[in-house]
User: Fold Nucleoside diphosphate kinase from Sphingomonas chungangi.
Amino acid sequence: MTTERTFSIIKPDATRRNLTGAVTKMLEAAGLRVVASKRIHMTQEQAEGFYAVHKERPFFGELVSFMISGPVVVQVLEGENAMARNREVMGATNPANAEPGTIRKELAESIEANTVHGSDSLENAATEIAYFFKPEEIVG
Ligand code: ATP
Ligand code: MG
Assistant:
């Protein structure tokens, strides 16, 4: 077991429905600690840069539009096996396929408006954390 840090976004569908606390409560209940958090409204350039790996996918334009449609909460989560643990509590990308008790099953609206983002590898976690946070903004 190693303590890891991963990166999370509470997406615009959740901030619009005032679910920041509800999502965070589920993350904390899963053993994750919020060691950095800020509410931001991403610019188009920021969102395009963040999702650059998806730029060839057919839903890229819509995904960027959705992610800038309202505020998001970007967070750094810390804990034992934080990256995998966060992916587990998030549930499958499509909420219809997500396990009961996961954030997406309980709260997501659709495959696009799916409430949370979570890094899918430790390497991506480090890149994504650095994209939004300075080291001194993360307090473990
Ligand atoms: P995330 O990267 O947000 O944590 P994920 O890793 O489960 O989610 P990805 O395959 O990386 O899913 O897709 C990134 C995001 O793009 C999804 O979370 C979702 O918001 C959106 N997305 C994925 N597939 C589709 C689709 N078929 N149609 C519309 N939007 C989609
Ligand atoms: Mg992903």
